[in-house]
Amino acid sequence: MWLLRLTWALAVLRVVASSSPSPGPGPGPGPTVPPPDKASIFADLSPAELRAVQSFLMSRPELGLSPSRGGVLAKNSLFLVELLPPKKRLALRYLDQGGPRPQRQARAVVFFGGQAEPNITEFAVGPLPRPSSYRPLRFKGGRTIPFTARPMTQLEYELLHRTLVEAMEPLYRLLRDATGFWYHNCSQRCLTFSDIAPRGLAPGERRSWLVLQRSVEGFFLHPVGLEVLVDHRDPDPRRWAVQQLWYNGQYFSSPQELAERYERGTLAVARLAEPPSRQLFSSYEPRGHFATGTPTEVHGAKVCEPQGRRYRLRGNQLEYGGWSLAFRLRSSAGLQLFDLRFNGERLAYEVSVQEAIAFYGGHTPAAMQTKYMDAGWGMGSVTYELARGIDCPEAATYLDAHHLYDSDGPVRFSSAICVFELPTGVPLRRHFDSDFQGGFHFYAGLEGQALVLRTTSTVYNYDYIWDFLLYPNGVMEAKVHATGFIHATFYMPQGRRYGSRVHSHLLGNLHTHLVHYKVDLDIAGTGNSFETMDVSFENISNPWSPGARRRRASPGAGGLRRGRPRCPCAKPRGSLAPRQPPCPSGYHLAVTRHHEDESTSSSIYTQNDPWEPLVSFEGFLRNNESIEDQDLVAWVTVGFLHVPHAEDIPNTATPGNAVGFFLRPFNFFDEDPSVASRSPVIVRPLDPPTFSRLEIQPRTP
Question: What does the record list as GO biological process (predicted)?
């Protein structure tokens, strides 16, 4: 089937800049790029700072903290430490007005499981690098965080595994005979499981459907037809219980009931073939051949920098052409840009990833329950090492990340971020000026280049490739590619309503990806406004041919104001299928006033308590505030419908599975700012009409 690629202009964010002229493309007086020490107020915590926060909190007797790993769930433990960014007004006072440097603080998440009423509390800890105090962080409406909303930990997974080992003992013969693998008392031919969320149907629940799979390479694609519902709400795992099972299309109340049905010979058994030892369908091992026989065992084209790098990286400050920005990699949600400027003038205070959601349909209980919200799975903390030459060019700059997330100290993730200049393969702009007699007046072109800031998130089966691209003409692109293994369930004929049969016993479940971004634009200051631009057709009389009528396009009501307002245009890109479910806010683009207690649109707790979320984005929109000449934040949702198909085996490929948006200048500059580049090629004939001598500018060094 063919999918229609849709690109459309959603809205224009604009500001009337009466006192600040548009910066020109060339050198001269004007705003300057902030020094790198100023960008460091947004830098991630260093390993030393992470350890200092951990040591300080562990030393406080009133908190009663125990190590995160091992032991019991009914304890107080430190789950997450990351930077607590400064309040915007304090940061701007420091960046723009010479005010005091904001105090550096950490955000610490503590699970208080070892008390009569377990809960989760977040603290601000500081000042860094030598913390001496902490205070609870307050949430909008005075909300508290229920203990059942906490993200899963390695300890809880280990306890779930032990629960399953015991629960699956009666099913040893069924699983061995039907699959050749088993769960109880297993050392080699083992089953494993993937867990589904949300964990229940109402607030306060913590009941997870577990999908049993063969533990082979690419186990996500090897369900065996057994799904188990475990209630693990109680901090004491001795009180956990299997509540229900689903096997090969039937529900059972206990493992014993299922085992008895098998022993009596009244069970419809799903017998699976022995998996091959080589070239398993879920592996990356080469198999098959291309018909042309062109070589694939040699290296393909590579990115190189023949005259060195054209960007500058100092700490967490990145500079490229007219661009400068600060960046960080949040353990909770991923990449975050601050103080985004072009030619020294701020365009955005913050541009950041907020959430990635995948809603699934299916026939099995696990499939119909699956609604993944990846901030709840530590989306920013699973930033594993980037492979040189595959994930990023060999010539890229690679940066480490350090996370303290469900660990007893900082964990180093080598080469988790990369920066590189990318040839786009298409000119940024070009023109061949023909003389229409076989010759030309001139040719001019500027090679297409973009600077890429990249990281990845491997959230269990799925891999997200997160990019921010900076173009020389003042355009910024935010983009995410989806790849990795599809979330698949055991094939049943009834399941074909909800997906595609992609292998003998495998259903690729239909799902929608939605990604939410925060775009805090500050164009010529914080006093911004928002308006949309619609284009409509009108019928008019032709002024030079009376009686003739024609149609022409014109801006509709509520179009751009006259007087050339300076603004960026927010323009999503991606693939949207018909009848796509609404975005979390009901809009592809929502605009709100900036509030310090509305710093994020989601949280790490939403996955396990979506019914009463700690952060309710809908609440941002209900206060009916004026957005005229205010400090505004745009919230952008992009996404696509994924109908899995056989070509998603072994992994979903990136082409056709990327979405994002552009920030484009709209009458912001006097002309295309890329004219400041000294690398265009201009060719003029010196002796027309013979064209035997050419002037080429610039000459290749």
Answer: amine metabolic process; response to antibiotic
